[in-house]
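Run log, item B.
One chain of 243 residues. Sequence copied directly from the ordering sheet:
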Amino acid sequence: YFPGARLAHMYGQTESSVSGICALTPRDTFDDITIGEPLDETKIFLMDDEGETVEEMGVGEIVVACEYIAPGYWRDEENSQKVFLHDKQRGRLYLTGDMGRLTAEGTIKAMGRKDFQVKIRGFRIELGEIETGLLQHYAVKEAIVIARPDKSGDNYLSAYIVASQAVSSEGMRDYLSGELPDYMVPRYFIFMEKLPVTSTGKIDRQRLPEPGENPESRPVYVAPADEIEEKVRAIILDNIDRH
């Protein structure tokens, strides 16, 4: 609608004020958008789980270094100590909880929240990527995906969907299977009239029902991914037949 306009994209947190800005043009695509260049007296870098700086093309937590960082969270010393740090060389640091990838050009591409990254069958995945896939379906109005541990301690995925028209679990599974790897396809699809929200209007993930509480959800058979899994399946089935 406004072909001559330029959009300024700003990245920042309340804890460290605005820390990055970039200008977008009509030629930019969603996949190319970065968090932008740091403002004066501010540095932005990526840190891995061991506290080391991430090199080119690596993924890590986005960290802000500057003197204009909050002293901590009000009456929350435990969380303050986790994210407000001090480095001898960089000075005061704030660990944002956002994940990013360092591009070949030295810019940082946002990769979602650290809180929403989980391991499924040995693969680290971003739950938001699955939610984006679900929202591209014509019948899906809202979608949230969460990971829960099963009895063995392994994570499985549950998708909570508000649909504009009737759609089946099988249909959603077939659709996602064509868009995402099989390990990113949820085990359960739970259809709801509306998603629970907090007093501030955010999705309340704690109030999402367990899959067994919803009659529309049921476990999904996942085929063996390789020869080893096929052998394990055969052993299990053989033991079941014997008993």
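Observations after the first pass:
- The first helix runs from residue 77 to 83.
- Residues 8 and 23 are 4 Å apart (CA to CA).
Flagged for discussion on Thursday.
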